[in-house]
Every structure is written in C-alpha cells, then in structure tokens.
Amino acid sequence: MGVRYKEIIELIKGYTLENGYQPSYQEIADMLGLKSKGQISYLLSEMQYLGYIKKIGNRAIAINRIYR
Question: pLDDT of 56-66, one tens digit each?
Fold first, then answer.
C-alpha cells in the first residue's frame, strides 16, 4: 500500500473517531491540501478497486481493510 493511501485511511479513521461520522470528499481534500474533490474521488475509487476501502453510496466511506 502506498504512503498516500495509508495517509488517507488514517485521516478517515481519525476524523471518524473524533467526529462520529466520516469526512466528506471536500473535507478530505482540505485536510490533504488538495484543491479538487475530483482528485479525492479518483484516489478513493482507486483504493476501492484495490480493496483498501469500501465506498457505500455516493458519499459515505467505510474502511474495509486496515494494513499495519
């Protein structure tokens, strides 16, 4: 798993623990310093294809696997 993927998974996990819900694409983009939600959509779709996460619907993100 790439460093960027690990960073995104840890970011989603930490945000969810702190706030009780998962971040939006825009919130993820802001936390990573990216300008586009499209970049996040692409990264998350790629991560889902690789089996690192499971996206539910259009917005929610659920962590499917956690690598150490």
Answer: 766 667 666 56
